[in-house]
Amino acid sequence: MPLNIIIFGQLTDITGSSLSLDNISDTDNLVRELNKRYPALAGKKYVVAVDKQVVTTNTVLTNNDTVALLPPFSGG
Amino acid sequence: MPLNIIIFGQLTDITGSSLSLDNISDTDNLVRELNKRYPALAGKKYVVAVDKQVVTTNTVLTNNDTVALLPPFSGG
Amino acid sequence: MKERKLKNIFVHGPVAASFIADSIQKHSIKTEIGGHSIFLGQVRADTIDGKKVASIEYTAYEEMALEKMHAIREGMFAKYDLICMHVYHSLGIVRAGEISLFVFTSSVHRKAAINACEETVERLKAELPVWGKELFEDETWQWKKNN
Amino acid sequence: MKERKLKNIFVHGPVAASFIADSIQKHSIKTEIGGHSIFLGQVRADTIDGKKVASIEYTAYEEMALEKMHAIREGMFAKYDLICMHVYHSLGIVRAGEISLFVFTSSVHRKAAINACEETVERLKAELPVWGKELFEDETWQWKKNN
Question: Does the predicted interface ipTM exceed a cut of 0.90?
Fold first, then answer.
């Protein structure tokens, strides 16, 4: 079963609004895989949220996790 | 020609909303005369405004001046 | 700096919500505005010695208040990068739950509007010759004190 | 402290002035309130490289934004002596001159409402996963950056 990733804001210009990736074990692994598939992402500023919490250290992922890529917020 | 004085707020309970006094030369004189006529005023907190400006030192008055007694403000 | 003329701020009775809405709506044509800050003073049904405030009756030394408000307004436009500023204060009876003060500032970036609104509220409470008389439900009353 | 449930803050399209008026009016029954503070974010017709912003299209990670907003709200009620707090943010298209953010706080004494309103605006701009896309009059666009 693949890992589903939802994407927001300016990042959707590169990846679209959702992705499915196989064999992703943790968030570091996810970022490496994303940079390989979408070289334009490598230069972009964003954080990874797992189950609606921003993660700041490498975090193990399971297929049940809701993973999201969040570029800088610009609401209001 | 007497000096006309307008009164506001809680001071009107003592003096009504306007007064006319004769032979008032300056604001110190005014306050003394008011305290004589309205002893209840002596204990009250208020400032004197001459031509819409609060005066903080003794100020000469003429009959053309607009003199007002202003207790602490409570707008808003 | 353009010169601003003496504006009336006094309205008889409460400031209606629909009046506030109209004021907001009028600013939609000023498309350089990015933020509005609004303060509304509402009459509280305070209980004092077991008696409840039913309304406040406001009086003012209007001519002096308008001059003071003009000076406050000039000071705000000099200090902050404001696009608009509007102030309305009630005179006469305003019942508990109704609005007696409406301060409305607008600017390109939010900070100017927010700071000017707050400072204007503080200054006008301290500087405008306006008095409130708290009328209790039993028809007795006392003069309001600002804190 | 009473528990507050997750409230929706998102509205589709602009926040109408009449909606703001209704919100204000509803508070007239809360006669313990003495002051309301309101912040309104309005979409600016900024000119960037000679092109004028016609509207902003807002998107959000809604589930996460509502959780974050809940945490901000709980923080404000813990920190300030608030009676009410309401927040509304637009999703979808909001044209220049229209309102995209409405923050509304109320308290017995004005300071709590004023401080909580300002802090809430700062926090939600920094913490809510919401994005604006500035749509120019010529139908090109760019992603909004908050300052």
Answer: yes
